[in-house]
Write a structure and sequence with these properties.
The structure is a homohexamer of 248-residue chains.
Chain A (H helix, E strand, L loop, with lengths): L2 E6 L5 H14 L4 E6 L11 H15 L8 E4 L7 H7 L4 E3 H12 L3 E5 L5 H10 L6 E6 L12 H14 L4 E4 L8 H8 L3 E3 H14 L35
Chain lengths: 248, 248, 248, 248, 248, 248
C-alpha cells in the first residue's frame, strides 16, 4: 500500500517548494508518495521569529485545505515554529525536519553541529532544539551569513564549508544542514569535511515512513489533544470546504 | 508626558479584552494611558498550541494596523507564542505577561508556582518559561481544569484555590495566575492562601512603565533585529494603510 | 538490494534471541534481512550494571566473529552499556534500542515514560538516556518489579499495565517498553492505556533501514574513531578467524 | 502618597554611597523618596567573597538601626551576598540590583552579558545569578580588570568598552553593568556599543516602586519566613534602640 | 608530625561546639589534633539565611584571632554560608561539612538524600549543594521539623527516622545528616534504615587529613585569591593582635 | 589494624601497574597495605570506549579471583567504564580515580580542569564525570594528544604543560591529571603552573582509607544491590576457585 507523505514548505517560494519535493522523493523508498506543498500566504523565506510565527499560522491554515487522505506530515522549515500546533490538529505523525536531522545526527556521532543561514536565526534554532529535548548533544549552531534565497548563488558553497569547519572546531562530529534550502550543497560538503552530513528533509521522510510502517500515531493524551471546539472568527484564512484536514 | 501602553489580548473575546484593559488601568500609575486591543481574527480563547500559534500571527497582524504612537506593548496571553516576533517588529519594549509575572514572583519568594486553566496547557507554559530563562525557580504549573471561558462561573474560585494549594505543596512560595482571565479571582485567592499572588497583566504594565521611564528599548543587535525586507504575499492579512506599526 | 541488519541480543538466552529476531523481522520492510545473534558467553539476562558491563564486552567479542557483510547493527539490550564501543569498532550505523525508542516516542508526544523490569535498573536506564542526550523529555522510568525471565509469565501483563499507569500519572504522553523481552505485551498494553507504545527493537530496525537508505555511516571524526592498533593479550575471547568484523 | 525606598550600598565608601543615591533619585519617579545608606562598618569596596560576606552581615546589622518607616529595600551591591537574609528580616520588598538588572536585560534581548570589575568576581557573580534563577540567558560575565575604586579614573571607560565588546562577541544582545560604581559610564557606553545598557540601581528602583504600587510584599511562607526568636549574643553589632527595622 | 585541624562551629552554643569537637576527635586518626572553636558573637543556632549570613561573618571574624599554626579548617555548619570567604582568607584547605558529606555519600550510592531540621532550611541547603556542584545526585532534602536545639530531645530520633524514610522513598540510596547537631543520632539511624549514614563532621575531618597528607592547599589562582589590601573600618569586630590567621 | 586496599589498573601493562602501585604506596599512610593488580586479559592501554568496555569486563573478571580479604577497591583507570558494576559485586567501598580527583579538586578551587591524553577520550571523560554528578564545576577537558604509552617519553612533559595552560585559560583553578600514567609528571607540572595538581590515584587511596576508617560501605539499597543469582555461561573468564571476591 502506498504511504502518502505531505511535505510542507513553510514559505511561499514555489521553486524552493519544488526543490524540497524533489529531494524528499529522492529520499523516499518505492511505494511512498510525496506531496510537496506550501502555504497560500506568507513570506517567501523565513528568516527570524517574525517570519517564523507568520509561517506557523500559514502552515496551519494550509493544513485545513488538505482534502485528500495522507499518512504523515513533514514540516520542512528548519528551526521554524508551529510543530506542536500541527500535532494537535492532526492524528497522523508530524515530523519536524529540525528534530529529524538532530535525531539522525545523534545516532552517528557523540555530538553534532548545525550550519545555518543568518546569525539572527541561531538563537531560534537553539530554542527549537531545546524545546524538542535534542539540544544537549549540539556542539553549536553556526551561521554562514547567507540569506535563504542567496543559497542558490555560486559563492554559497564556500561560505557553508567555512561555517561547517567552524562548528567542527567546536567539537561537532556530525553536521546538520540548518535550512531546507541547503540540500543541494550536501554531497559536496560531505566530501570536503569528511564527516556525515544530515539533511533534515531526507531524515524526516524516512522517519515518517518508519512511523507509518509501525502504525504509530500522535498521542492524543495531554499536550497534543485535538483543539477544542470553539468560535474562531475569521479563521481559517483560506476558504476550506470541509474545514478539517482529511487524514487517512 | 503620557506613557501610552498597548495591551494586546491574544484572543478575540471582546469582554475579556475589556476586562484586561480595566485591570491594566487599575495597575497603571497616573499619566499612563492604556489601549486594550485584540486581534481582528482568531480564536475566542487560546487553549493549547494550535490556538496559540494562530493568535501569535493574529497579534502580529494586528500590530501592523496600529496607526498611533505608543511607547510599549504588553502581550496579555499567558504562556502564548509570539513574543519574539513582536520584539523583532517593534523597537519599543515588548512585555509578555508570562515573563512579567514570573519575574515579580521571583523577587518575592525563592520559588513560585503557576495556576492555570487546563492541563493541556501545562507543558506549553513550562516551555514558555523555559525559553524565557525563568523556569528554574518554578515549583510547578498546576491546572484548575477550567476552560478560559469557564473562569467567569461561580465555581471557578474553588477550583483555582484547590490548584493553588496543590502547587504550594510542591514548594511554591509565591503564586502566579496563569491566565489573563483569572485576574478577578486574585484578591480572594490571596486571602485564602496567605502568599503573594502575582497577576501578569499588572506586572507587565509596571515593567512597561519602568522601561519607558529609563529610556530602554528592545535590542536590535542579534535575535530581535528588524524583519528583513522581502515579499510576503497575502500578509499582513488585515488591510493596513501605513503597513508598519507607528511607535513613538 | 537487500539490507542486512544484525540484531544483537545482549544476553545469552536463545529463546529471547529468537523472539527478538522474530519481532525485528515483523518490523522490517521487504528487502531487509535480519540476523538475530547473541554473545557466546555471559549472563542469560542483564539486570543491573554488573551484568550489563559483562554483556558489553561479550557483545564486542561477538562482533569480532561476524564473517559476513552486514549494513547495520541493532543493539537489543534496553539501557545496557557498550554502544559507544561498538560505534568505534564498526563503520556501519549502530542503533541502540534505548535511543531508538526514545527518539520515536519524542516525535509522538511532548514527553515519554519508560516501563522497565526491576527498580535496580531505573538509574542505569536514566543514565543511558542522559548520556544519549535524550533524557530531558523523559517523564519517568518505572519498574514493574519483574525479572527479565519472569516477563514470560501470565501475571506479567498486569504488572506492566500498572507500571504504565504510574508513569502516565507523572506526565508521560507516550510509553516506551524498557526491555526487549516486553515486546509481546505491547499491543495489549496499547489497548489498555490509549497512548502510543513504542518498542525499541522495532524502532531500531526502522532507523537502521533509514540510515542505510540514506548512505549515512558512523562518524570517524572524534569519539568514534576506530580503535587504535595495539596489543590486547587474551582479547578477543572467542576464536576469531579474520579478527575484524566484516561490514559491507 | 510618598513611596520611601532605602537604597543600601554594601560598602562603607561615603562618596560611592552618595553617587548611588544620586543615581537612584534620577531613576525614581515623582513621589518616590530615596534614602541612600551604607553599613557602619566593613570594607570600603567589596571585591570577592571575603569582602562580600562581611558586607552581608554589615548590611543586616545596619537594617536593625532603621528607625523610620520605609516601603522597600534596594540592595546596591552587584553580585554580593545577603539578599536572602534581608528578605527574612523584612516584610517589604527587597530588590537586589543583580536580579533587577538581569530581569530588565532579559526583556530587551534574548541574552545578556555582564561587565564587571575584577576577574576574581566573575564566579561570584555567576553564582549570584544562578541562585536567582536568572543565569540561563547570561552569555557571559567579563571583567574590565579594574578595582571598584579605580572606576573613577579616566582610563576606566576604555577598559569597560573593551570588556563590553568581548561579551557581545560571546552572543550577548544587552549589556548589564556589573558594579554599582559603573553607573556614570553607562550613557557613554551605550553610544559606543549600540545595544541597551542596563544599570541595576535604576532597574531596582523601578521594580521597588512597581511592587509597592501593586501592594506586593515578600512571601513569609517558606524560605523567607521571619528569623526565629533566639539568643544571639553580641548581635546586632551596632547599638540599636528599637532592635527591629521599622517598615511601613 | 601532628596535623592540626580547626573545627569551627558556626553558632555560639558552647555545648554544641563541645559535641562537635568530641565527634571530630572520634573520627580523627592518631596524630591529628582537633581544636573545636566557635565565633565570639552571633546566634546560638543557625536556622535560615538571616542567621547564616550573620554566622558567616562571625566565623571570618573568629579566624582573624587564630594565633597558632594550623593545617586545615573544617567549617561545621551544614548548608551555612561563608566557605568561599574562608577559602580566600586562608591558604590551608577549607572543608565545608556540606560538601564533605555529599562527596562521601556519592561514593557509596548512586544518589543521596539529606535529612535536616526545619523546612525553611531546605532551599538554603539545596543552594549550598548546587553552588558546590554536588546537587545533581541529591534525591531530596527533607526536614524533620525540629529546631537545632530540639535535636537533644528524646523525641528527636523518631522524627529523624521518619524524615529519612521519606527521602529514601524519593530514591536516595545513602543518607546525609543535614545538621552538625544530629551526629549523636547517626548509629541508631543506620540500624533502622539499613543504608549508609554519612555525617559531615567526620567526613570533613578525614578529607582535611587527606589533603594535608598530600600537601594540597587552596588554589590562589582565580576565585579564592587572597583578599585585596584595603581599608575596612570597624573590621574585624573582635580584637585581633596579629590581625591575620596564623596558618602553618 | 592494617587497611588493605586493592588498586586495580584497568589495562594489562605490568610496568604501568607497578608505577601505579608505587604511587599509591607513596600516598598511603602508615598501616595501609596496597596490592596493585591488573586484569589477566585485555588491552595494554585503554584509549577510547572500545578499549574501556573491554577493560571494564576484564576488571570485573579479575575481581572474582581475589582470594584474600581486602577493605576497599581503587579503580585506577581515569574516565574508564565499570565502576558501577564493581560496586554491585563488592560490599567494600569502590573508589574510581576519576571521581576521587574531581572531588579533591572541587575542595581546592571553584572549578577544575582535566588534562588527558588523546582528544578521542575527551567526550568519554566528560561523560564519566557527568554520570558521577561531578561535571558542573569542570571548566574543560583538554588533550595533550599523547597516547598512554607515549607518556613515558621525554617530550611528554611539554605537551602536558601546554594542555594545562589551555584549560587554565578556560577558567580552571585546579588541575586534574586525566590518566593514571601521568602521575610522574605531577610535581614538575605543579611548579610550572602554580595551581594545585590533583592525582586521582593518590586521592582515591586517601578516600579509601577514610571510608574504611569511618566504617562506611557501599549501599546495597537500590542501584548497587548485589548481582542476582543466575546462569552466566562462560563467565567469569578466568579460572576462579572460590568464584566470589573475598572481602573483609
Amino acid at each position: 500500500m502506498t504511504t502518502h507523505i505531505v511535505v510542507m514548505n513553510c514559505n511561499t517560494s514555489e521553486p524552493m517548494t519544488e526543490a524540497i519535493g524533489a529531494h524528499a522523493r529522492a529520499a523516499a523508498r518505492e511505494g511512498t508518495r510525496i506531496s510537496a506543498l506550501r502555504p497560500s500566504w506568507g513570506p517567501e523565506s523565513a528568516e527570524g521569529n517574525y517570519d517564523s510565527f507568520v509561517t506557523a499560522a500559514a502552515v496551519l491554515d494550509r493544513l485545513h485545505t488538505l482534502d485528500f487522505p495522507f499518512d504523515a506530515l513533514v514540516m520542512a522549515g528548519f528551526g521554524e515554529h508551529g510543530r506542536e500546533g500541527a500535532r494537535e490538529l492532526l492524528d497522523v505523525p508530524v515530523i519536524d525536519i529540525t528534530e529529524a536531522a538532530a535525531q539522525f545526527a545523534m545516532l552517528l556521532g557523540r555530538s553534532y553541529g548545525v550550519v545555518t543561514t543568518l546569525s539572527r536565526a541561531v538563537g531560534q534554532i537553539e530554542d527549537s532544539l531545546r524545546l524538542a529535548g535534542l539540544f544537549e548533544r549540539c556542539a553549536g549552531v553556526v551561521a554562514a551569513e547567507l540569506g535563504v534565497l542567496e543559497l542558490e548563488e555560486d559563492s554559497a558553497a564556500a561560505a557553508v564549508v567555512a561555517a561547517s569547519r567552524a562548528v567542527l572546531d567546536r567539537g561537532a562530529e556530525v553536521l546538520v544542514l540548518g535550512c531546507a534550502g541547503m540540500t543541494r550543497l550536501a554531497s559536496a560538503l560531505a566530501q570536503q569535511v569528511d564527516v556525515p552530513v544530515v539533511d533534515g528533509v531526507a531524515a524526516a521522510v524516512k522517519l515518517a515512513e518508519s512511523l507509518v510502517d509501525l502504525g504509530l500515531t500522535t498521542s492524543k493524551h495531554g499536550s497534543y489533544a485535538r483543539p477544542r471546539e470553539k468560535r474562531r472568527p475569521g479563521w481559517p484564512i483560506s476558504p476550506t470546504p470541509g474545514g478539517q484536514p482529511r487524514q487517512r
